[in-house]
Amino acid sequence: xxxxxxxxxxxxxxxxxxxxxxxxxxxxxxYGQIKLKESTLEKIKNGQIEKGAVLETARVAGIMGVxxxxxxxxxxxxxxxxxxxxxxxxxxxxxxxxxATVRTTGKTGVEMxxxxxxxxxxxxxxxxxxxxxxxMVIKNIKLMKKTGxxxxxxxxxNDD
Length: 160
Hints:
Its EC number is 4.6.1.17. By secondary structure, the chain is α+β, with helices and mostly antiparallel strands. The chain has one domain: 2-Layer Sandwich (Alpha-Beta Plaits). It is built from 4 helices and 5 strands. A hairpin with a 2-residue loop joins strand 2 (81-92) and strand 3 (95-106). It is elongated, with a radius of gyration of 18 Å.
């Protein structure tokens, strides 16, 4: 029988025990996109969305999301996050790229925290712009890079 890391011998859910793992510096970078109408992206750039400063609100929301990850995803360990950076990139006339970089020194990685930061930032953009654009699409959320831990460094090599 296969042994699962998040299920005990009686089939009950459990959190992985990281007590004996070494503490290392860890970083994860996640990425995602939100596709918008060209007019919506222009309104964001020009500060014309009625709800306010879309990107700054989304940045704060992304940071808050990172910090709340262990409360949202059942088997994530609460982590002492040492750094969070949420960045936005106007990729073309209809696409906003979102990057979340998360750092810690600890026994487990911060990939889920980076994914949560990107997701919450994108959802906040959607929430703030839905009055002018209901066709927005959040997509392509993926891990770009992670460092630290037993598995070492991972860097995405393709754009799938």
